[in-house]
Amino acid sequence: MRPVDPARAPAPVWEIATPPRPCRIPGVGMAGFRTSAPVDLDVVPYPAVTVALDLGDPPLAVDDATGRRTHGSVVVGLAPGGVRGHGSAVTCLQLRLPPPVAHRILGASSELGGAVVGLDQLWGRDAVRTEERLRAAPSWDERFAIAEAALVRRFADGRPVDPEVAFAWDRLVAQRGAVRIELIAAETGWSRKRLWSRFHTQTGLGPKHAARLVRFDDAAHRLAAGHSAARVAADTGYTDQSHLHRDIRTFTGTTPSTLANAPWLSVDPTAWPATRPDGGHA
User: Fewest beta carbons less than 10 Å away: which of 10, 64, 97, 153?
Assistant: First the structure.
């Protein structure tokens, strides 16, 4: 995150809270964020569906690539392009949901491939009730407990993705995107065409695009950790440095040096320690 006008406004200082224990739903991450400074948030694509439960006043405003603005609690799908968040101050509880989990909890699928939608569009009144309980909670630990209870309830009631799709996603993450889709299809017993169709329907992205996103995320974290673009390209399976540059341009519209200094990534070691490339990043 960066100030709306870096020349005149102080950089926001973030208070970051994390849960005392992992979520009962495997793969789900939670973190709380608060700042009293104005922010202009550039979203760096991440291989999970992001839910921002807005607890601030005035409400968070999130723009998609077309300039359409959504206020309040939002869901940001996989591989968003040009998504920006704004606020004179921000307090939110952020969730990161692996696509197979997001499909089950949110009751949504293909529309989350890069889309930005209000949480109330997916959860209806339950979104409002959950937000009200979160706002009334006196501590972050209680907020995490409330959010987890809501997720567990909807997870139990939701319709899971096909086991083959969940397996394919896990393989892509385990291999950091460096695996051929034909091989994954063979392992599932499905044809490449069937896997491609079902994967896209239930996660919002085709498997090849998902593999690129997973690899990009690995590269982005390595750049943020201070590794050179040449080393990152070699270590993450890009054919050369130009190939890495093209993927960064596709996903963020920026350069490796700009991405390396993205404040969005700088909070990851505190907010999402399990996602660090040198500390368990898949």
Answer: 10
